Amino acid sequence: MSDIKIVFATGNDGKMKEIREILKDLDMDILSMKEAGVDPVIIENGSTFGENAEIKAKAVWNLTGGIVLADDSGLVVDYLNGEPGIYSSRYLGEDTSYAIKNQNIIDRVADAKGQLRSARFVCNIAAVLPDGHVLHAEEVMEGLIAEKPAGSGGFGYDPIVYIPEFGVTSAELSMEQKNQISHRGKALEAIKEKLKISCRGEAV
Predict the structure, then answer these.
(1) Which residues are catalytic?
(2) Is the pTM of this model over 0.85?
(3) How close are the terminal C-alpha atoms of the chain, in Å?
(4) Domain boundaries in the chain?
(5) What topology does CATH give the domain 5-200?
(6) Distances, alpha carbon 119 to alpha carbons 27, 162, 179, 197, in Å
(7) For the chain, what is the mean pLDDT?
(8) Distance of alpha carbon 181 from the chain centroid
(9) Are 127 and 135 contacting, i.e. CB atoms less than 8 angstroms apart?
């Protein structure tokens, strides 16, 4: 697969770093939209993470062909009836800093104790193949909303999602730890195996 390129439909540098680390054993170049020279107008009007991931992937694939991956991910907080969910990146406005978004969520769950603070990161990855066929993989990472932000790793909501089995927030995990247990890491591993089967015809 050395001559095959994958375009990942994102402009998020932090996300691209994670993606390249996890997919490094695929003999493929992994390009961001910017590196591929495309910047489509994408309207994420799906009602699920899977629908939005596919919308993004197809929008880029229509311009590039080849293999295009896109993810739609977000934070689901049970105490907030699933918010921010599929609106995670747009929560309180797309230009609002995550420091403000994170503090708002902490404030809103202030009265919740123990397991009432349960939350999870969800990631659905859609892969559009050269023939237009679409593959999906969806995974989660369970946690609790922390009482205060902690850690400087990761991005987005990572500082407020406490992972009990590690005793730290997602932002305090090492890259290796995070890639092994994160929603995106597990979904990328799953889609990677599906790509191997589709591109090489190999049983995994």
Answers:
(1) 72
(2) yes
(3) 16
(4) 5-200
(5) Maf protein (3.90.950)
(6) 35, 9, 19, 33
(7) 92
(8) 13
(9) yes
